[in-house]
Amino acid sequence: MRTEREEFLVLLSKNIFTATGEKPLDGFLVVKGNRIFAIGPRSESEVWVQKARHVIDLGRRVVTPGFVDNHTFFTGYVLRSIGIDFTGIRSDVEGIAAIQKYRENRPADKPVFGHCWEPADFQYSGEDLLSKEFPDLPVVIFTFDRDTCWMNQAARDQYGFTPEECYAEKIYRMMPEYLNEEGIEQKYLDYIQMLNERGVTAIKEMSFDTYYGFTDVMERLEKEDRLNMRVAFMSQPVGEGINLAHGEAMREKFKGDFVRFEGFNRMTDRGIARFLGELIEPYASKPETTCLVPVEWELIEKETLEADRHGFRYSLHCQGDGAVRHTVDLYEKCEKVNGRLKNRHAITDLEYSNPADLERMGRLGVIAEVYPQIQSLDKKQDILDMIATQLGGDRGKNYWNRRKMWDSGVCVTCGTDLPLLIPDIPESIYCAVGGYFKDGESFNRQNMLTVQEILTAWTINGQYNCYNEDRLGTLEVGKLADIAVLDADVFHTPVEKIRDAKVCLTISDGRIVHNTLR
């Protein structure tokens, strides 16, 4: 349920980050209804404090516009909680008993899904007991991180994937089943609440194909005024090619304040560590190879140009510098106004890029969707060893080169590839400003951004990416009141000490949706 709005909510802070390019303001901000009604220096605050129903003095806590995660997948996140909970189940015999009990209150022909399987501690009875007990009913139990699963032969036959390959693009045949499971609507609301607790008030969400009926859930939640999240969603073709008719239908279906259809999204290359990133120069450890599996550039170009002609965006996910270059070449062929892309096409990830192509991105108006927390997944030496093995020489200097993007005029925005990462803005500052890995070691500091720049990327730049910059993304009079508050002064705290900070207050559309202030 959405909360009631306060009549004249006043926030006082020594660090109001407006995202307009100015330094943080020591002052006040007034919310009335769902709009920012006034903002100014502390010396002018008293008149508003006197008439306000609710005043919050935040001290040195940082007030910012609400954050935007520009690359999320609910379809992946929900697998952490879908169906039966396998936590603590230690054998296939125990698992079969738990599944049989779980099915007592389900239709007999409904497939069984589950989460939190723990394969390291799981004992088998010496045969494929799951397939034997359920020869005709698909059963799939995922690990918490969704890297693998316990599944029977019926599931393999019906869904066409294996425990060795169960990433999102492989499990799409399952999605129509689990996106229509009882309780999925509440899981989506829980997902939104989780994001609100991290200060996120807008997302660019990736769906697959036609989203298998889930758009009806989104439409209903918006009509019932139950969304505390602006959702700009895109279609990622997996089971079929680009579906322009679906895009046109979604553009007509969603014209409200909270849900909009943006366009299409597709992978190009994959990880450099596995020789799947497309490089300009060959791999150091495979001198004959620039990409182990060729990218479907002919198909991608055809689809991108079709989307562009119909006024849709097409964001492409690139990890290697060759894929980035190929994509910029492709965007050069799209419609332009005064030399810049008419439709706001984007490149996601950009793990390794060539500086010349980042300059071209800036001139063209290509948006960058970077993962600022990505270094939190690894130890520094592991990455340095991988770079030395795969790239060699000094090629590692172009890894995660956000500095060059920013200086080239690229609109840098932030994503997490959720559920790969869960949005954590203090951690993103730690990684993308300090260059720190999970072990506290730093790398390529010359390629990193400033605190003000990374907050700009999370706010106004993110809203530009969602076509919301006229109504959201800055703290200015008349803008919609989507606001986040960090419980630390991130502007004056050493970067290495920022990681443990939290979001203590989130306001979405003028309503307080998360509050841990005491």
From TrEMBL:
<dbReference type="InterPro" id="IPR032466">
    <property type="entry name" value="Metal_Hydrolase"/>
</dbReference>
<dbReference type="InterPro" id="IPR013108">
    <property type="entry name" value="Amidohydro_3"/>
</dbReference>
<dbReference type="InterPro" id="IPR011059">
    <property type="entry name" value="Metal-dep_hydrolase_composite"/>
</dbReference>
<dbReference type="Pfam" id="PF07969">
    <property type="entry name" value="Amidohydro_3"/>
</dbReference>
<protein>
    <submittedName>
        <fullName>Amidohydrolase family protein</fullName>
    </submittedName>
</protein>
<feature type="domain" description="Amidohydrolase 3">
    <location>
        <begin position="55"/>
        <end position="514"/>
    </location>
</feature>
